Amino acid sequence: MLAIRAAKLFDGIGPGTVERPVVLVEGGRIAGVVPGGSVPADAVPVDLGETTLLPGFVDTHVHLAFDASDDVVGRLRRASDEELLERMRAAGRAALSAGVTTVRDLGDRGYLALRLREETAKDATAGPTVLASGPPLTTPRGHCWFLGGQAEGVEGIRAAVRERAAHGVDVVKVMVTGGDLTPGSDPCHVQYGHAELLAAVREAHRHGLPVTAHAHSAAGIADAVSAGFDMVEHCFFVTGIAGDGDADDPGVDYDRRILDDMVRLGVVASLTLGSLPGGPPPPPRIARRIPGLVAGLAAMREAGVGVVCGSDSGIFPVKAHGSHPYSVAAMVETGFTPLEALRAATSAAARACGVACRKGCIAPGFDADLVAVAGNPLADITAVHAVTAVFREGVRIPLD
Ligand SMILES: [Zn+2]
Q1: In terms of pTM, does the model score above 0.85?
Q2: What are the structural domains of the chain?
Q3: How far is the CA of 380 from the centre of ligand 1 (A)?
Q4: CA 113 – ligand 1 centroid, Å
Q5: Spacing, Cα 39 to ligand 1 middle (Å)
Q6: How far apart are alpha carbons 396 and 39 in whole angstroms?
Q7: Ligand 1: distance of its center to the CA of 312 in Å?
Q8: pLDDT per residue over 65-104, tens digit each?
Q9: Cβ atoms within 10 A of the Cβ of 123, count?
Q10: pLDDT band (50, 70, 90) for residue 289
Q11: How far is the CA of 27 from the centre of ligand 1 (A)?
């Protein structure tokens, strides 16, 4: 049995911290949490000094197959499956070193994330626990079509969902709107009709799978919510960013009626804020949207929409694998409290990903997924960048 000592502990729910905790770990699970506790005689003590212990982060949105280069699409398309899998292994290790002990991969090629899921299930040091959607459903030549998930029409959609269920995915992802990454795709354009979205939701739920929507615009979010999706990725309610350069008033329009529907139906927003510092300044059409985005997130918060924290790691150089702590910090920069951001990255994220019974909390019976950070992130969220120790299922991960 391990007895991990730290200065403070946030259990994933809070609101406060436990002072001078000792976390007992046995067989990969948490056996007990003793405040101000002493170490049992038969335990191996691990003293983490003046750190705060948190549940390992659950990143609700990553793309392990994208390598965060200047040309993620080209590099993915040129890579063989084996090359891609090797990059995904490295991406997973980078996330784990940043304290992310569970990732939900929302877009791979050829179900490669499921192979990584198997590998890291056997070896805690190989990477985080992986949950995966396989290739996202998209229209012919639609957003991220090159991942191999093109499907259209009610029957086509149902068959695509069945294929994913047969592969054993953890979640179904549908590209409800276009996206920035794909040339010619418009993030405001809704790719699917209502009958197709409804078919995706029904077929996924029939197989006991949650279903999440990639949706940028208010129209796409509204369509996803009314079709019964469990979650919306990004969920930034953007307007006027047509890919053809016809950028009439790029903005943000958080529709209060849609937010109220999300609350009423329990639809969670998987926010993908944040990026590494030191990158190039955002293009003007993005920069002009930021004040509206901050106001919109305040409206979302006020309405009481459930939020979780995803990084979208892999898609751009400033979204490198391992950058997830910047997504947590960005929630605070855009108006959430540190407590809200930390819940969004731990217990709430685990609940939204369907693993709340074993991830996202430091409590007896939960997997011993832990991250120690220097300082107190409830007082100063930037402490999440100072990761000093990571444990996955009780195994200490060597950090560089
Ligand atoms: Zn994404």
Answers
A1: yes
A2: 2-55+360-396 (2.30.40.10), 57-352 (3.20.20.140)
A3: 28
A4: 14
A5: 43
A6: 18
A7: 5
A8: 999 999 999 999 999 999 999 999 999 999 999 999 999 9
A9: 10
A10: confident
A11: 34
User: What is the Å distance from ligand 1's center to 63 Cα?
Assistant: 6
The rounded Å distance from CA 277 to ligand 1 centre is 20
Average confidence (pLDDT) over 251-272: 94
Task: Assess contact for 54 and 22: CB atoms under 8 A.
Answer: no
- Find the helix or strand (DSSP H, E) in which 20 lies: none
The alpha carbon of 221 and the centre of ligand 1 are apart by a number of angstroms equal to 15
Ligand 1 mean position to 319 CA, how many Å? Answer: 11
Categorise residue 384: left if φ over 0, alpha if ψ from -120 to 50, beta otherwise: alpha
Q: Which two tokens stand for residue 289?
A: 């949207």
- Cα(263) to centroid(ligand 1), Å: 23
Closest by Cα among 15, 58, 146 to 370:
58
Which tokens is 50 given?
A: 């003046």
**Residue 189, token pair as written in the block:** 């354009």
**Cα of 106 to ligand 1 centre, how many Å?**
6
8 A C-beta contact, residue 214 and residue 177: yes
Buried b (16+ CB within 10 A) or exposed e, 235-251: bbbbbbbebeeeeeebb
According to DSSP H, which parts of the chain are helical? 72-78, 81-97, 112-122, 153-167, 194-206, 218-227, 256-265, 284-287, 290-303, 324-333, 338-345, 347-352
Residues with CB under 5 A from ligand 1 (ion): 312
Q: Which amino acid is at 392?
A: R
